[in-house]
Amino acid sequence: MTQMIDPFGRAISYLRVSVTDRCDLRCVYCMAEDMTFLPKAEILSLEELERLCGAFVDLGVRKLRLTGGEPLVRRNIMSLIRCRGAGLDELTLTTNGTQLARYAGELADAGVKRINVSCDTLDPAKFQAITRWGKLDQVMEGIRAAKDAGLRVKINAVALKGTNDDEFDRMIEWCGRAGHD
Question: pLDDT for 137-156, tens place per residue?
Fold first, then answer.
């Protein structure tokens, strides 16, 4: 098997793959409120993504992270996740959590062991302001569903001066109490 090697002589075994540019939130640091997305014809099909991921696995990739946009808004995304769940040391997902309540069990059944959830605040009003229209309770429900399905949850937060920088201690304490990474 041919192994990919980076310019520093290290074997490349980890790959992040963005499966869509679309998202169901419009976080102020990430997207404009009125986004212009790529034409769907310019986005790789799920079959093309499967072939691409398979080629990288053949070249030594052992860990794969699916990202976006929001990967769980991609139509039929579970077909790609089910295909890729086998043959890897680790298949992970980065998500905003809005669709987790719906997909957590399927993700676990497909071989996903852990996920990263973007959650910048524990304050519902701030959450809605940061995401422009998101509902914190929907994300919390998704996180609970993920934990119930046996998924390890890592919380990612973007530090926003004057917005959520007064909550870091509370966020760390919550993550510790809830068993999140």
Answer: 999 999 999 999 999 999 99
What is the rounded CA–CA span in Å between residue 15 and residue 30?
Answer: 22
pTM reported for the whole predicted model = 0.91
The tens digit of pLDDT for each residue in 60-83 reads 999 999 999 999 999 999 999 998
DSSP-assigned states of every residue in the chain: ----B-TTS-B--EEEEE--S--S---TTT--TT--PPPGGGSPPHHHHHHHHHHHHHTT--EEEEESS-GGGSTTHHHHHHHHTSS-SEEEEEE-STTHHHHHHHHHHTT--EEEEE---S-HHHHHHHHSS--HHHHHHHHHHHHHTT-EEEEE----TTTTTT-HHHHHHHHHHHT--
Task: Report residue 66: phi and psi, to 5°.
Answer: -95, 130
CB atoms within 10 A of CB 24: 16
